Amino acid sequence: MLLLLQDPRREIRKVMEFLERPADEELVEKIAHHTSFKEMRHNSMANYTSIPTSVMDHSISPFMRKGMTGDWKNYFTVAQNEHFDADYKRQMEGSSLHFRMEI
Q1: Residue spans of alpha helices (H) in 1-103
Q2: Tens digit of pLDDT for each residue in 13-50?
Q3: Rounded Cα distance, 33 and 35, in Å
Q4: Are 43 and 34 in contact (CB under 8 A)?
Q5: Any idea where the Sulfotransferase domain is (predicted)?
Q6: Alpha carbon distance 92, 98 (integer Å)
Q7: CB 64 within 8 A of CB 44
Q8: Pairwise CA distance, residues 87 & 90, whole Å
Q9: Residue 83: which residues within 8 A CB-CB, separation 6 or more?
């Protein structure tokens, strides 16, 4: 996440390369723009404000939070973190993608 915040265009290009897609600079710019937290906060397709309050009540807690790297540590229990780490390891096994999760 940190690298994505530092240089989103570079990280988008890496994902496109992994997906074996040409890294057209116009497309990279569009993806960077539409995937920024600033834009996603206002996009009902990304922030879940278009779904009924019976499913997700934004007056209790918005779906899109600050987008701060490492902020999960303030919310995950030790057990949740261990479960996430195990599931992440299982799902990413054999992948050449590497993400830096810590600041």
Answers
A1: 2-6, 8-18, 25-34, 37-41, 44-47, 78-92
A2: 999 999 999 889 999 999 999 988 888 888 887 878 88
A3: 6
A4: yes
A5: 4-95
A6: 9
A7: no
A8: 5
A9: none
Residue 72 exposed, middle or buried by CB count within 10 Å (0-12, 13-18, 19+)? middle
Average pLDDT, the chain: 83
- 3-state DSSP assignment of residue 4: helix
Angle value at C-alpha 42, between 39 and 46, nearest 5 degrees: 80
Determine contact, residues 6/85, Cβ cutoff 8 Å: no
Cα separation, 52 vs 63, whole angstroms: 13
- Tell which phi-psi region holds residue 48, choosing left (phi > 0), alpha (psi between -120 and 50) or beta: left
Reading the block at residue 69, the tokens are: 């790297």
